[in-house]
Amino acid sequence: MIVYDKKILDNEILVDEADTLYKGGFISKEQKQFIKKELSVFRSQNNILVRIGFFLLGSFLYGSICGAISIIGMNAENAYFKICCYIFAAVGFAGSELLAKQNYHNHGLDDAFILGTILNIGFAIGITTDGYESVIAFFMAIASLYMFLRYLHLLSMLVFCFSITAFLFFQMFEFGEIGKAILPFTAMTFAAICYFLTKKLINNLIKSYYYKGLLLANTFCLVLFYLSCNYLVVRELSAELLGTEVQPGTDIPFAFFFYGFTFVVPIVYLVQALRTKDRFMLWISFLAIGFSIYTIRFYYAVLPIEVALTLGGLVLFAIAYFSIKKLKEKESGLTFKPDRINHSDNFLNAEALVVASTFGIKPEVKVDSPMEFGGGGFSGGGSEGNF
Question: How far apart are CA 158 and CA 148, in angstroms?
Fold first, then answer.
């Protein structure tokens, strides 16, 4: 399924680990550069601004090709309009394949063709089905998942997450008022199932090629789970979808459940993140706590905004101060000390990298030693009492 050479993918992992070792102070800059020089890697861009520039350039190239095809096909008029997006999607797929064969990965040019392919598939299905949302979301989900599995494209995984969620929502709309009423609980259940499924897939990974994409999907599930039953989201969607108007002195159905959910889930996220040392869940828990406070203030302004911000700042300062004071001397577990190295499940062949870079041994090259071992004639030094 993966279009790229597995050897280059493994080299990319080794280069990433070499960079991690360098940041941790285990190898020198020269050793890191030596490793990057000796290993063949992808043509990629780590600078986000440069990558955006190449994306714009790739989009211009993609649009130029599609425009040239349209000049020829315009003679067919209405018939061409019905199939043009399918042709553009095929052009995008062909361009993605060509760039992948030339080892372009996360470069910007490949982003333009991969995302263009998914977008044109959505347009093509929309034209064919007269804008049937569920079918459009379904086929975009399939296309984006295929693009991720074949090109290891993280943005495609993000598109898949949004598309499959949109497909669920549109399917629930098909059931009318009942589907719209139970949509929060359906979305919550869907997010929970997908979270544990992606977690299991991550734990069972043999090769780490799909790790980042699964981690992205796993994080998306955490966000979806919280937002699905957040009081503000549910109340505003109820007004939008069901036309429910909350009169003074009344509230939405199951209001106490949504209130409790809004505040309990961020705390659960925070406790679980501290217990498992999950940084992504920790960040999400902080954002969720902030959004929960905003949810209550959106409807119930207990204090003036300037007073609330001042008190909130004092509370956060106190929490940060005492947390740092308590954790700054700890050497293990939850600590305030900076990481010397960023541990990950992909920490592959780290010792081999250190040895290779130290002694100048090229990776994957066997070196025959000129020394005769065993007799102490040169390097034994003690086996026969002489050097």
Answer: 9
- For the chain, give every domain's residue range: 1-41, 234-328
Instruction: Examine the pLDDT at 37 and tell me if it is beyond 80.
Output: no
330 φ/ψ angles, rounded to the nearest 5 degrees? -75, 140
Residue 265 has pLDDT above 80, yes or no: yes
d(CA 5, CA 2): 8
Q: State the DSSP H helix or E strand holding residue 45, giving kind and residue range, or none if neither.
A: none
By the 8 A CB rule, do 381 and 52 touch? no
Determine the Cα–Cα distance for residues 253 and 250; give it in Å rounded to an integer: 9
Q: Which two tokens stand for residue 4?
A: 């790229």
Paired tokens of 381: 């030094």
List pLDDT tens digits, range 115-146. Answer: 999 999 999 999 999 888 999 999 999 999 99
pTM: 0.79
What is the spatial distance between Cα 89 and Cα 80, in angstroms, rounded to a whole number? Answer: 14
Q: How far apart are the first and last CA of the chain?
A: 56
The identity of residue 99, as a single letter, is: L
The DSSP string of 95-124 is HHHHHHHTTB-SSSHHHHHHHHHHHHHHHH
Dist CA 233 CA 349 (whole Å): 47
d(CA 15, CA 343): 15
- Sign of the CA dihedral running 287, 152, 27, 36: negative
Helix H or strand E segment including 19: helix 6-23
Q: Read out DSSP for 156-172?
A: HHHHHHHHHHHHHHHHH
Whole-angstrom distance, CA of residue 222 vs CA of residue 192: 8
Which residues does 182 contact at the CB level (< 8 Å), separation at least 6?
Answer: 172
Judge contact between 73 and 80, C-beta under 8 A.
Answer: yes
Q: Are 272 and 258 in contact (CB under 8 A)?
A: no
- Between the alpha carbon of residue 157 and those of residues 111, 214, 235, 276, 297, the distances in Å are 12, 8, 29, 25, 34
Residues 324 and 336: beta-carbon distance below 8 Å: yes
88 φ/ψ sector (left φ>0, alpha ψ -120 to 50, else beta): alpha
